[in-house]
UniProtKB/TrEMBL annotation:
Keywords per UniProt: Cytoplasm, GTP-binding, Hydrolase, Nucleotide-binding, Ribonucleoprotein, RNA-binding, Signal recognition particle
Name of the gene: ffh
Lineage of origin: Bacteria, Bacillati, Actinomycetota, Actinomycetes, Kineosporiales
UniProt KW Hydrolase keyword: yes
Protein family (similarity comment): Belongs to the GTP-binding SRP family. SRP54 subfamily.
Name by which UniProt lists this protein: Signal recognition particle protein
Compartmental location: Cytoplasm
Species annotation: Angustibacter luteus
Length: 306
C-alpha cells in the first residue's frame, strides 16, 4: 500500500536536491507535484487542498539558514503535514473507569470486522486483559460461527445467541435480536469479570439504513466506551462517503484501517481521519490474527516517505 504515493513524493524531493534556496517558482512547482501525487493516490480533494496549502505556506516561510537544506526542509514539512492528516498523535483505547470497557465494531460487510475482532481480542489478551467477544452480527448465517472460529484461535471466549432460543424477536437468521445479544453480552462480561467486551456488529456491502439503525440502537443500548469504524483501505474513493455515513449513523470514536497489505493506492483511507475528525487507532495488515498493529501516524508518515 502507498507505494505509488511514496515513489511520487520521493521523486519530487529529488528534484530539489542541490538547490541552495527555494524560489517561489520552485515552491510552486513542488506543491503542484505533491498535489498530483496525492490526487493520484486517491486522497480526498479537501484534504489535498488543506495539505498543499500548508506545505506552500511553510515552504515559502522556511528559514534558509537552518540546519536543514531546502530539500530536507520540504521533506520535513511534508512529513509533518502527513502526520497531521493521519491524526497527529497515537490514540490508545480509553478504558472505562468501571470495567468492562465496551468496544463496538461497525463497518460495511467484508471490511474485516470479524477478523479485526479476533485480532484486537488477541492483542488485548497478550497485554493481560480478559476480553469477551460478542456475536451481534446476526445478519449473515455464518457470521456467528466465523466469530467463534476467530475467538478459538485467539483463545478468547465468545458470547453468542443459542440457535432455537430466539425469544420473541427473531431476525433474518432466526438468531434473535442483536441489541439484546449485545446487552446480554455486556452483562455476561460484568458477571464473569471480563474487563473488555468487543461487540461484532452486522454490515452490508453498501450503506444500509436498517443496519445503520440497528448499529445505532446497539450503541444506545450498551453505551460503548469506544466505537471503532472498520474500513477496508482498498475501497478507494468510497472510503470518505462511507466514513461520513457511519459518523452520522454511529458517531464512531476511532478508525481501523484494514487490508493495508493490499496494493491499492490507499489515499482515500488516509483521508478518513481528517474528514471525520476521528483518529485512526489500529491497522490490519493481513488475514492472520497477528497481522495487526497500533496505528502510529508518525511511523506511517515515515514509512510513506522512506
Ligand atoms: P466482516 O464482514 O467485516 O466481518 O469482514 P471479515 O472479517 O469476514 O473479512 C472479510 C475478508 O477480508 C476475509 O476473507 C478476511 O480474511 C479478509 N481480511 C480481513 N482483514 C484483512 C487484512 O488486513 N488483509 C487482508 N489481506 N485480508 C483481510
Amino acid at each position: 500500500m502507498f507505494a505509488t504515493l511514496s515513489d511520487r513524493l520521493t521523486a519530487t524531493f529529488k528534484n530539489l536536491r542541490g538547490k541552495g534556496r527555494l524560489s517561489e517558482a520552485d515552491v510552486a512547482a513542488t506543491v503542484r507535484e505533491i498535489r498530483t501525487a496525492l490526487l493520484e493516490a486517491d486522497v480526498a480533494l479537501p484534504v489535498v487542498k488543506q495539505f498543499t496549502e500548508a506545505v506552500r505556506e511553510r515552504a515559502l516561510g522556511a528559514e534558509v539558514s537552518g540546519a536543514l537544506n531546502p530539500a530536507q526542509q520540504v521533506v520535513k514539512i511534508v512529513n509533518d503535514e502527513l502526520v497531521a492528516v493521519l491524526g497527529g498523535q497515537t490514540r490508545r483505547i480509553q478504558y472505562a473507569k468501571n470495567p468492562p470497557t465496551v468496544i463496538m465494531l461497525a463497518g460495511l460487510q467484508g471490511a474485516g470486522k470479524t477478523t479485526l475482532a479476533g485480532k484486537l481480542a488477541l492483542s488485548l489478551r497478550s497485554e493481560g486483559h480478559t476480553p469477551l467477544l460478542v456475536a451481534a452480527d446476526l445478519q449473515r448465517p455464518n457470521a456467528v460461527t466465523q466469530l467463534q472460529v476467530v475467538g478459538e484461535r485467539a483463545g478468547v471466549p465468545v458470547f453468542a445467541p443459542e440457535k432455537g432460543n430466539q425469544g420473541s424477536d427473531p431476525d433474518a437468521t432466526g438468531l434473535g435480536d442483536p441489541v439484546k445479544v449485545s446487552r446480554d453480552g455486556v452483562a455476561e462480561a460484568a458477571a464473569r469479570q471480563h474487563d473488555v467486551v468487543i461487540i461484532d456488529t452486522a454490515g452490508r456491502l453498501g450503506i444500509d439504513t436498517v443496519l445503520m439503525q440497528q448499529a445505532a440502537d446497539i450503541r444506545t443500548a450498551v453505551q460503548p466506551d469506544e466505537v471503532l469504524f472498520v474500513i477496508d483501505a482498498m475501497i478507494g474513493q468510497d472510503a470518505v462517503n462511507t466514513a461520513h455515513a457511519f459518523l452520522e449513523g454511529v458517531d464512531f470514536t476511532g478508525v481501523v484501517l484494514t487490508k493495508l497489505d493490499g496494493d491499492a493506492r490507499g489515499g482515500a483511507a488516509l483521508s478518513v481521519a481528517t474528514v471525520t475528525g476521528r483518529p485512526i487507532m489500529f491497522a490490519s495488515t493481513g488475514e492472520k490474527l497477528e497481522d495487526f498493529e497500533v496505528f502510529h501516524p508518525d511511523r506511517m508518515a515515515s514509512r510513506i516517505l522512506d
